[in-house]
Design brief:
Strand content: 5-15%
Distance between the termini: 81 Å
Shape: globular
CATH topology of the largest domain: Rossmann fold
Number of strands: 17
Helix content: 40-55%
Radius of gyration: 30 Å
CATH superfamily of the largest domain: P-loop containing nucleotide triphosphate hydrolases
Structural class: alpha/beta
Number of helices: 34
CATH class of the largest domain: Alpha Beta
Length: about 725
């Protein structure tokens, strides 16, 4: 062992009390000490901060650490001071300091006491700070969260783009850039922008083998599902991420009223409350933090046991970083994401109005999130491929630790379909993105495809026997298997790899599984989800409840779906309500439906529970947050006053579709809503009678079936409104 290596290890022991380094920390530190530019890509929990803290402590002068988060800086300064005799060893320099504190920081730097100076990029741009640092001894610059430099990074900060000029103004010294998430595109962006193309790159594996990845369908029962999950993991710490502050507050309140110690955390709370909630979580006085992405960046809690995404994030980098908060001690880490495509559509709307290039980047990042959610591939392999890392899904570390691997979908031979996709990419001279290739295959001629005369191609409409979702699934799996690549510079244009060219000449077997469709879960999906904990359905009881629904419907002279709908029956098989009172808590039931139809159902379930010795989780009755019904009350009052539905929607700033959704929810939960006055303005008496007769005789209330039955004579809105009237009249 050479003396240099020995001294680095000795210093590690002296300063931090550790006997050995993690991963490739030692090589990184030696490279920094040798005065070289260094680029470190290391997942959350891999020990990035050690890579600049130890060399800073070992050298003369002050290392400038650029970080975007005040919480992170404070956390690290406190941590370093804990290992040192003098608090001056590490400082933060920002606008929150008093004049006296700022002078103290500068004196400690001048006197050679401060080894690490943490600054936000905004503080570094101030002329007075630049002038002071020009006359100070700087050891090196550490750029933490370096992905903030790249527009392709998940947390782009424009002020990071100027760091190269500031470093030059202060005086160029070695630079170490560090990030926990960097796709190949982001990596090259960072190096170019910081002027460190020749830097030695150290990339640790992104595989967190102890994390279990799962995607669940986001249904109206998502709150109940989350509460049930947490109650099955009581006493364990977890983080739930939501995209809006409003949802954070609502969900935290719902968890609290259901006996879970939870706190909200978002930028809208005052600093004192945020710090209090953060500290309570660290001290385990709170079990769950419900947060926007503002939480967790600077938190080093090793035993977070689950991370739940209530909403899908805007990029896979965000998802990876947020799931990375789980299981940092190497123990259990369950990562569950709830997915519905309509959430992605909301995020797409937020991009409108932004510059075109920003929209293109944002849309592509969202499409990667959709691909991850809907894929039937090994989720770990999919994620690692996104970060430029290969993974053996059969034998790699943690290979079977995801929902798709534990419950694989049936595979089928897709050699011909893969060949068709690859030959279409070749025939169009590798100029299109995935959606255009799909449109060519299914025969959907867009304006751009008309210009390129795509309908004259041999491949045009050759894939019309499958839908667009199927072909997107083929493209996804072909990319992950290395036959196609996305040109990021051209916003995701597809190109053939050498492997892809070989396949066209000499096709080989290609087995694939069809992707998930979380919008319309089929019977098999429900069973599979039940096995993995997504939907814990008692199939025997479900069949008994279905039979009872038909019997009660016959007695009452209404269709079965007007008694209880299938989602309500599913929920009954999960929670076993044995009284009419408990049935009221089932979504889609409510008070009047429970009173009208509930008694025989409660009796049947009670008898079933007794005969089968079922241990009911008596405490699992989800309570609603009080006063969440303002909109419901307003709608009922407004329809009683016979206000036009358009006026009700406008007064609440919601779309007509959203208003009809709300009215359906009110009616489905057993409350009458009278919209006869509005329907009469749309349909005459004969038309109304015709639609009501259909609903009375039909076995299903499915709108698609109704639309097809009337061959398009009525639009979807008219059919929905009459269905609401019908359910309100006969079921409530």
């Amino acid at each position: 062992m050479n003396t240099k290596t020995k001294s680095v290890k000795e210093e590690l022991k002296r300063f931090f009390g550790f006997d050995k380094f993690k991963g490739n920390q030692e090589e990184v530190i030696e490279n920094v000490l040798a005065g070289n530019d260094t680029f470190v890509i290391m997942p959350t929990g891999g020990g990035k901060s050690m890579c600049y803290q130890l060399p800073a402590l070992m050298q003369e002068g002050t290392a400038i650490v650029v970080s975007p988060l005040i919480a992170l800086m404070k956390n690290q300064v406190d941590s370093i001071r804990g290992f040192a005799d003098n608090d001056g060893v590490a400082h933060v320099l920002n606008s929150s300091l008093t004049k006296g504190q700022t002078e103290q920081v500068k004196n400690d730097i001048t006197n050679g006491i401060t080894k690490l100076l943490y600054v936000a990029p905004e503080s570094l741009t101030k002329q007075e700070n630049i002038e002071f640092l020009q006359n100070s001894k700087i050891s090196f610059y550490a750029i933490d969260e370096a992905h903030c430099i790249s527009e392709w990074g998940h947390d782009f900060r424009p002020e990071y783009r100027n760091l190269r000029n500031i470093i030059k103004a202060i005086g160029r010294k070695p630079v170490i850039a560090l990030t926990a998430t960097a796709t190949p595109k982001v990596q090259s962006d960072i190096q170019k922008n910081l002027g460190m193309d020749d830097a030695m790159v150290f990339k640790a594996s992104f595989n967190r083998e102890n994390l279990f990845y799962e995607v669940r369908p986001k249904t109206q029962n998502v709150d109940r599902d989350i509460i049930k999950f947490i109650k099955g993991h009581m006493g364990k710490s977890g983080i739930i991420y939501c995209l809006s502050r409003k949802k954070v507050e609502e969900l935290a309140e719902t968890l609290k009223v259901n006996g879970i110690k939870a706190n909200p955390y978002h930028a809208g709370l005052d600093a004192k409350t945020r710090i209090k909630h953060q500290d309570e979580f660290l001290m385990e006085e709170t079990e769950v933090i419900v947060a926007t992405i503002a939480f967790g960046m600077g938190i080093d809690k090793p035993d977070v046991r689950f991370v739940i995404h209530y909403d899908m994030p805007k990029s896979l980098e965000s998802y990876y970083q947020e799931t990375g908060r789980a299981g940092r001690d190497g123990g259990e880490g369950i990562c569950i994401a709830y997915y519905a495509y309509k959430d992605i559509e909301k995020l797409e709307k937020f991009l409108h109005g932004k510059p075109v290039s920003e929209q293109e980047v944002g849309m592509q990042l969202l499409q990667e999130v959709v691909s991850y959610a809907e894929t039937s591939l090994n989720r770990r392999k999919f994620l690692l491929h996104y970060f430029g890392e290969e993974f053996d899904e059969e034998n790699g570390p943690g290979a079977k630790n995801d929902d798709n691997s534990q419950h694989p979908r049936k595979k089928f031979e897709a050699k011909d379909d893969v060949h068709l996709v690859l030959s279409t990419v070749l025939a169009t001279n590798e100029r299109f993105k995935g959606d255009a290739i799909v449109n060519i295959l299914i025969g959907k001629l867009t304006t751009i495809l008309k210009q390129y005369k795509a309908d004259k191609l041999e491949q045009y409409m050759q894939g019309a026997d499958h839908d667009d979702r199927y072909w997107m699934a083929v493209i996804r799996q072909v990319i992950v298997n290395g036959y196609l690549k996305k040109d990021i510079e051209k916003y995701g244009v597809l190109g053939l790899t050498e492997k892809g060219h070989d396949f066209i000449k000499n096709p080989v077997s290609f087995e694939m599984a069809e992707d998930h469709s979380y919008e319309t879960m089929e019977e098999d999906d429900i069973k599979s989800a039940a096995k993995s904990g997504g939907v814990a359905m008692d199939e025997v009881l479900f069949k008994m409840l279905k039979d009872l629904t038909r019997k009660v419907a016959k007695e009452k002279g209404v269709p079965p779906y007007a008694v209880f709908q299938e989602p309500s029956l599913h929920e009954m098989t999960m929670t076993y309500p044995t009284s009419v009172e408990e049935l009221k808590n089932i979504s889609g039931v409510g008070e009047s439906k429970a009173r009208k139809f509930g008694a025989p159902f409660a009796q049947l379930i009670s008898k079933y529970v007794e005969e089968n010795n079922i241990d009911r989780s008596d405490d699992f009755v989800v309570k609603s947050v009080v006063n969440k019904s303002g909109l419901k009350v307003y709608i009922i009052q407004s329809t009683d006053r016979k206000l036009p539905l358009e006026d009700i929607a406008n007064s609440k700033g919601i779309a007509m579709d959203a208003l009809i959704d709300e009215i359906e929810n009110i009616v489905n939960s057993g409350t009458k809503v009278n919209i006869d006055y509005y329907i009469e303005s749309l349909l005459d008496e004969d038309q109304l009678e015709e639609i009501i007769d259909y609903y009375m005789e039909s076995e299903t209330d499915d709108l698609k079936d109704a639309y097809e039955e009337f061959d398009g004579d009525y639009d979807e809105e008219e059919l929905r409104l009459v269905r609401i009237k019908f359910m309100s009249d006969v079921a409530n």
